[in-house]
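Support case: pyridoxal-5'-phosphate complex. Customer-provided input:
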Amino acid sequence: MPEITIPTSLLPADGRFGSGPTKVRQEQLDHLMASREILGTSHRQAPVKDLVGRVRSGIADLFRLPEGYEVVLGNGGSTAFWDAAAFSLIERRSQNLVFGEFGQKFASAAAAPWLEQPDVRTAEPGTRSTASPVEGVDVYAWPQNETSTGVMAPVTRVHGDPGALTVIDATSAAGGVDVDAAESDVYYFAPQKNFASDGGLWLALLSPAAIERVERIAGGDRYIPEFLSLKNALDNSRLNQTLNTPALATLVLLEAQLDWMNGSGGLSFAAARTRESSSALYDWAESVDYASPFVADPADRSQVVVTIDFADAIDAKAISSALRANGVVDTEPYRKLGRNQLRVATYAGIDPADVRALIGSIEYVVDQLG
Ligand SMILES: *Cc1c(COP(=O)(O)O)cnc(C)c1O
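Agent response - structure generated as follows:
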């Protein structure tokens, strides 16, 4: 393969387009440096508890938290939340929509021995399945954005059995897609995507019905490990604490991103940015004859993770490698999808001007490979 040097005038100012972890904005790092007196201090003392409190209220503001909902957090990221949900949220049986890796992972966690087998509704990658009410199902679960494929699904409450909960994996959608939180009972995410922080934490908006469920299951006779107890997380969160030590830098970086979003117009501001960036990519892919959006139905196309297929004559791997050699990183597709594809995050923190520069860089590389 020839070595390709992309002209500096074409390159994005910031070359980080990963789907998570992703670009951390300079202002977040400045805030981290300005917060140095908090780093390395006790999470049981006021300065860190106040930081957790500011993060919780920043999230409440961003999502226009509906009456009675609470912001809960814990350690372990979204993956830990799946196991916590199996112990603390699913009463008997869940319905899981699977249209990619992340939906599948929750479905697997929900197949726990103390629960009935989940009602799993699978769709081919690039498309999506939909929820429908089933008697005996008490949790309806799906990812709002399937990060492995770039398929996005609406957040609308499922009206099943009385008390059934709608539980949304918003890990890669939260903070980049406008949403009515009242259409879900649990809206959970991790901070390393639109919030441009580090991983290792989960956060969730819980409705009054979800809180009631968590408390009821905790009061029953099911064995629940303390680390995976949502009741424990709820009680600690109310005190602006976590069960065990949180990563303080992660909270500080998250705080900075929340301040930026809330100070710039909130969720509609963030969603307009991700919409602008993703539209630029989809419009471009449709305008050239060697690329096309992987997700066929425009209504299902993600505004935060864009997947673009390339014609057989062009090796997408050669494009992502050439980009990487020029400092433009993490445009490789989800490893298990195995397609001739680029995947580009268009999260809130990524500058739409950089996405347009990325398009110019891809065109340059394709031309050179030609
Ligand atoms: C990234 C991602 C996860 C996994 O998050 P972790 O914090 O690494 O566990 C889960 N679901 C979706 C939709 C994701 O994009």
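Residues 20, 77-79, 102, 143, 145, 147, 169, 171-172, 190, 199 surround pyridoxal-5'-phosphate (CB under 6 Å).

Case will auto-close in a few days if no follow-up is received.
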